[in-house]
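User: Please predict the structure of the protein below. I'd like the answer in structure-token form so I can feed it into my own downstream comparison script.

Assistant: Understood. Taking the following sequence of 66 residues as input:
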Amino acid sequence: MPMDNPIAEELVSIIKKQKKSEYEEAFERAFELTKAYAGSANAQASTIPFVFERLFELFVTGKARS
């Protein structure tokens, strides 16, 4: 089933390593920052996926959703 969100499609492709993606650097940067957040004393487990998603989108598009 195809996804409607191209950013989500790129993310899945990177995780599955189906193809080389121009967004691999964005993934790595978002992943490293999310790991740092997850290791902090203030991190809430329920927000970690949301933080990663927002960071990845920011690095891919250059914009943050409001």
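That's the full token string. Residues 24-38 form the longest helix (15 residues).
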